[in-house]
Q: What sequence folds into this?
């Protein structure tokens, strides 16, 4: 039953929630190892866009993923595999890595909670183009209609790993991935499930690229978050999936734990549809709420993976919010934005950056921003500029989106 | 176990603006008049069931965030404000911590299509005013801004059953004490591209638009309309579980027919009929009357069922949602006096 809650549910949220598998696909590569190496070195994966025509756009670069020739073996039928497009493939690859790492088996009633902004939008674009150019042609149109929709990508995961359960798609713009993980965390914490497959995905598509370009939010050069001369974001694509379990369940399964999620906060910025409140009230509230959830103070956060898009508005607001939230601790607080390596992954951003935090906690290093020229003086905190090893026990990840969706997640090193 | 109560209902539908218009249309039990919609490249138009113009212009249309907003945002806000009723000022005054959950399937498709058409013509002149309105969570954002609500807000995407997933999520937020009240809204808007796409699968189905909203609280005091008794599991349509099997399993989670109870289902297609063949009581099947409006339709089902409980026509109502392409999920609401 989705309602009433199971008898063993606990509104006080006493269950501890751990990550037992993580899969990641970005322009840095496929899988944990390649991405960890890239983030640790601060490698930049931007290149000219090849997926669609950008000749009439201001910006012409993005962080495109090189997809492998073959997908991992799953229980998807050959026909289903043929119908997968770019976003679905990235999601499937990430999910396969996480699922395999966690050693999960097919089960009944395994919830899926994933975030995306646009599902398989390229199919939607193709549908419209054909519908206008060839109004009476139905060729391939039914497939595009079905597979354009985000719920189909969730069902593809059910079919790929032969499980069943509620598929929840959170679409809170660029906070979608973080909100999805946060929602899964709260379900586990409250005893609504024992394990959940969660994360986020988004692929590059012409509509979104042109949209951000129309807003003049795209930089013509690789993005430089928190740089005094930053001039916009750079888009990327990818997917990240986490297998989350209650600690009790993970222990019963003798699962290897990659890290713990201890806090989640979500708020709404009502200032403007695309611009954050200059004082960062909602961002501050999300970070504060996440800390309250984790029962820790900002001084106990050892690294912040910032939303850090490199737009003038976002970074200014986030700086104000972090300064206010961290107070005197700010000057000793390392902060960086991994978007400097892989761009802004929109609905996947929060999930991919969650995995980046887990990598940093596991490896005891901080992801640097190599491309930074001159730090915005508004930042009272330390921006990580060079690869560095560092003992860190907790990390906070920020995700902010259009519509004022704000989310913060807190991760703890394990053990 | 926390008990959850429905405290407000709102609807914008092809029948008009407000729950009374929806109720009247369902009472008449005759399909709402269709209208034609030009389908570019076709000689014949498409037939849809749009929301009629409001009798008087709602004041909220003049809000800075809603002047240029798409229709789906206007429907969302109208249904939400009706469901909130006198609670609007309490939310705006910060007295009630309000959660907002909006469920959509096609979402703001009109602006998405328009923006992409502009991109295809010339991306340099594509409108930066339209693009932000294309995100799925734009309606939820506009509603939160109108109400000044800075609490948690999710936009969920999926088929019809997403509305009931949203209701379950609201119950979780209320139980956990995250919010004092929660609005759950299902909303859709029509466009030729959605009506065109639907024809590929169901030639006779007429696309409708609008929104439905319910306001949930833990409080059973004055103003409670009905009690949320059950939301079944979500049974997804997968390689190993057909739509029919999912519908059958959903039905098995809801009780047998008792006197003075209502079943509010979809269009009574063969799948849904087979799942509910044992049901001998009253049935309401609004899809033939209002059209297919995905998540908004499931919201209207709940609104209609709860309204019939408020009017003391039934002591309980079961909701059957066998979605178009994702899941079967059901719910049960009780009259407050019969709760427990």
A:
């Amino acid at each position: 039953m989705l309602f009433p809650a199971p008898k063993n549910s606990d509104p006080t949220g006493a269950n501890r929630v751990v990550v037992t598998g993580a899969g990641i696909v970005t322009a840095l590569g496929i899988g944990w190892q390649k991405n960890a190496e890239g983030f640790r070195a601060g490698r930049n994966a931007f290149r000219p866009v090849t997926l669609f025509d950008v000749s009439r756009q201001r910006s012409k670069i993005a962080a495109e993923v090189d997809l492998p020739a073959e997908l991992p073996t799953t229980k998807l039928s050959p026909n289903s595999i043929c119908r997968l497009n770019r976003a679905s493939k990235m999601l499937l690859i990430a999910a396969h890595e996480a699922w395999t790492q966690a050693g999960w088996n097919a089960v009944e009633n395994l919830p899926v909670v994933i975030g995306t902004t646009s599902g398989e939008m390229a199919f939607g674009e193709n549908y419209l183009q054909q519908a206008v150019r060839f109004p009476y042609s139905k060729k391939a149109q039914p497939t595009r209609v079905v597979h354009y929709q985000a719920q189909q990508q969730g069902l593809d995961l059910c079919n790929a790993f032969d499980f069943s359960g509620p598929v929840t798609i959170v679409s809170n713009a660029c906070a979608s991935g973080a909100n999805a993980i946060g929602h899964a965390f709260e379900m586990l914490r409250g005893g609504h499930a024992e394990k959940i497959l969660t994360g986020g995905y988004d692929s590059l598509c012409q509509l979104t690229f042109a949209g951000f370009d129309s807003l003049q939010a795209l930089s013509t050069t690789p993005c430089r978050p928190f740089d005094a001369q930053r001039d916009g974001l750079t888009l990327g694509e990818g997917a990240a999936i986490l297998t989350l379990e209650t600690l009790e369940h993970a222990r019963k399964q003798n699962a290897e734990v990659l890290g713990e999620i201890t806090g989640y906060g979500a708020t709404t910025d009502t200032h403007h549809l695309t611009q954050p409140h200059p004082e960062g009230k909602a961002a501050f509230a999300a970070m504060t709420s996440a800390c309250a959830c984790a029962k820790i103070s900002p001084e106990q956060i050892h690294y912040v993976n910032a939303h850090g898009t490199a737009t003038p508005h976002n970074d200014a607001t986030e700086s104000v919010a972090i300064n206010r939230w961290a107070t005197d601790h700010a000057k000793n607080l390392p902060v960086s934005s991994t978007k400097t390596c892989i761009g802004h992954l929109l609905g996947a951003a929060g999930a991919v950056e969650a995995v980046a935090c887990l990598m940093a906690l596991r490896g005891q290093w901080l992801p640097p921003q190599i491309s930074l020229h001159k730090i915005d003086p508004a930042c009272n905190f330390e921006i990580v500029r060079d690869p560095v090893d560092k003992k860190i026990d907790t990390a906070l990840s920020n995700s902010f989106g259009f519509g004022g969706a704000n989310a913060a997640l807190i991760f703890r090193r394990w053990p | 176990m926390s008990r959850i109560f429905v405290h407000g209902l709102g609807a914008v539908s092809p029948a008009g603006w407000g729950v009374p218009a929806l109720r009247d249309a369902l009472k008449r039990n005759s399909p709402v008049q269709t209208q034609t919609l030009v389908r570019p490249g076709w000689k014949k138009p498409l037939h849809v069931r749009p929301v009629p113009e409001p009798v008087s212009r709602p004041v909220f249309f003049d809000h800075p965030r809603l002047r240029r907003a798409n229709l789906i945002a206007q429907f969302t806000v109208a249904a939400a404000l009706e469901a909130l009723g006198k609670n609007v000022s309490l939310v705006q005054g910060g007295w009630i911590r309000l959660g907002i959950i909006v469920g959509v399937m096609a979402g703001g498709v009109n602006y998405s299509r328009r923006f992409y058409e502009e991109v295809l013509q010339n991306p340099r002149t594509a409108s930066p005013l339209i693009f932000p309105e294309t995100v799925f969570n734009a309606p939820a954002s506009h509603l939160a801004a109108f109400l000044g609500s800075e609490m948690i807000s999710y936009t969920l995407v999926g088929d019809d059953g997403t509305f009931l997933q949203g209701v379950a999520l609201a119950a979780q937020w209320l139980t956990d004490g995250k919010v004092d009240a929660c609005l759950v809204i299902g909303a859709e808007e029509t466009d030729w591209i959605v009506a065109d796409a639907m024809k590929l699968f169901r030639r006779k189905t007429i696309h409708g638009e609008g929104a439905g909203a319910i306001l949930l609280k833990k409080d059973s005091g004055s103003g409670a309309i009905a009690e949320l008794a059950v939301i079944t599991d979500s049974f997804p349509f997968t390689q190993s579980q057909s739509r029919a099997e999912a519908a059958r399993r959903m039905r098995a989670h809801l009780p047998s027919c008792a006197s003075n109870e209502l079943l509010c289902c979809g269009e009574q297609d063969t799948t849904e009929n087979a799942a509910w063949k044992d049901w001998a009581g009253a049935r309401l099947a609004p899809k033939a009357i209002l059209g297919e409006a995905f998540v908004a339709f499931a919201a209207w089902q709940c609104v209609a069922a709860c309204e019939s409980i408020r009017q003391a026509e039934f002591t309980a109502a079961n909701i059957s949602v066998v979605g178009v392409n994702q899941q079967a999920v059901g719910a049960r609401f009780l009259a407050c006096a019969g709760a427990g």
In short: Chain B has a mean pLDDT of 95. The longest helix of chain B spans residues 294-310. Chain B is about 35% helix and 25% strand.
